[in-house]
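Page 37, continued from 36.
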């Protein structure tokens, strides 16, 4: 076995896209990325409707523009966050320092837990506003499927981001173990690949 930090035996090696795609955190992050696209895309495309006697469009969620703004903002920022952490996941095997790996995983834990919370708030907010919507505000029932899709994928996002948090905690445990092992046995080969 090569010495070094957890997984650092491959540091500087070639990027393996097949191994990268098969990792559970990569699949979940891609799934979260798709969910965020569905949420903000459905609100942007069909989240604004108007009555027959009005020309100005209003948010389909109880005519509350804050509900649409929240869904769009959280969706777009989650989309960008997924891209950032997908790049970090791809770069992670190249990081040879245990301390730098630990920082990356700690940031992943914090960001994933934060997004799970934001998606929970978004699900509750959108559901509440959708439930309070009046049929006379949308007489032709336009955008109902888009609103339900935004609510549904907000709900699914709670679990994908929550599970990403769990996987990051597991990753942190492995890194912490490797750090302690290296401290106790500085001249021995790395225990983990």
């Amino acid at each position: 076995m090569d010495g070094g930090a957890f997984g650092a035996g491959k540091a500087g090696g070639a990027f393996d896209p097949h191994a990268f795609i098969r990792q559970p955190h990569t699949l979940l992050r891609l799934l979260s990325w798709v969910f965020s696209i569905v949420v903000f895309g459905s609100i942007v495309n069909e989240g604004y409707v108007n009555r027959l006697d009005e020309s100005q469009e209003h948010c389909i969620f109880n005519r509350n523009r804050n509900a649409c703004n929240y869904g769009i903002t959280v969706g777009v920022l989650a989309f960008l966050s997924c891209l950032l952490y997908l790049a970090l996941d791809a770069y992670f095997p190249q990081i040879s320092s245990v301390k730098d790996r630990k920082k990356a995983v700690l940031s992943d834990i914090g960001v994933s837990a934060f997004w799970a919370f934001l998606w929970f708030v978004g699900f509750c907010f959108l559901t509440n506003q959708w439930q309070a919507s009046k049929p006379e505000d949308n007489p032709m029932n336009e955008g109902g499927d888009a609103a339900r899709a935004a609510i549904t994928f907000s709900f699914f996002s709670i679990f994908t981001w929550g599970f990403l948090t769990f996987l990051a905690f597991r990753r942190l445990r492995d890194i912490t173990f490797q750090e302690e092992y290296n401290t106790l046995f500085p001249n021995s080969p790395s225990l983990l690949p």
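The chain is about 70% helix and 0% strand. Flag for discussion at group meeting. The first strand starts at residue 48 and ends at 49.
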